[in-house]
Amino acid sequence: MSDILTIALSKGRILEQTLPLLAYAHLTPLEDVQTTRKLMVDGPMIQGVQVRFLIIRAADVCTYVEQGAADMGISGRDLLLEHRPYVYEPLDLKIGCCRVCICGLKDAVEQGEPQSGSRIRVATKYDHLAENYYLSQGIQAEIIHLYGGMELAPLVGMADRIVDIVETGSTLKANGLIEEKTLYDISSRLVVNPASSATKRTLIHPIVEQLREAIVQQSKPEETINGEHDSSGCQSS
Ligand code: PRP
């Protein structure tokens, strides 16, 4: 067995929610991964094996895990659905909760969904998810691939709809767009390289179980200072 266990983490907004789960599983990175410019950071030793973290773009986590460059990682369900990598997905971490939605300008959405047989221009980074949905509806979709800021495309007349992540809805609102339909509820998933799952089972299995326990702990309602109950985690997924 290799003497390193590599875990790929997504940069960005998910990272902050990932760290408490890792801490519960005794997997705290030795440097502040939210501020460092390093892409590879050491973690603790477990069972005499050095843990290291890769801090990479969310869209790349599955590639590193599928290729075996990382043994395990944390990836959004949106990316798993879009790219369908060959990885095991043992846990819903119930963080990074949002949804993949079809959205458009208010006026356009209020006119109703496009009719079967019609054509539509759709801006998205989820080309396959968008294409499959419209195909299932008998609508001919021209997919315009963008890397971010999808909400701009309808504003400048480049697309009729977008298929994108909605979390709070504030980006849509700020740009005069509304939701038309939710396609998928999303949360972050623990993903494991299938070969690592076999060869490093004695390391990986306890981590999966500790993370499972962390999710249960984190989803327990907490007393707020007002005496009301609050809970974190996804409402649905
Ligand atoms: C994501 C997504 C939306 C926004 C939704 O973008 O693409 O634009 O967040 O979040 P909200 O519903 O809470 O407003 P992100 O900030 O990740 O940047 P990007 O547009 O560059 O992908």
Bound compounds, please?
Answer: 1-O-pyrophosphono-5-O-phosphono-alpha-D-ribofuranose
User: Biggest sheet: strands, sense, closure?
Assistant: 6 strands, mixed
Q: How far apart are the termini?
A: 35 Å
Radius of gyration: 20 Å
Q: How many domains make up the coordinates?
A: 2
CATH architecture of the largest domain: 3-Layer(aba) Sandwich
Give unreliable regions as ranges.
224-232
CATH topology name of the largest domain, in short, is D-Maltodextrin-Binding Protein, domain 2
CATH C-level label of the largest domain: Alpha Beta
SS field, number of helical segments: 9
Output the strand order for the largest sheet.
Answer: 2-3-1-4-11-5
Structural class: alpha/beta
| Helix share, percent | 25-40%
In short:
The protein has 237 residues and is of the alpha/beta class.
Question: Can you give keywords for this protein?
Answer:
single chain, 237 residues, alpha/beta, D-Maltodextrin-Binding Protein, domain 2, five-stranded mixed β-sheet, 32% strand, binds 1-O-pyrophosphono-5-O-phosphono-alpha-D-ribofuranose
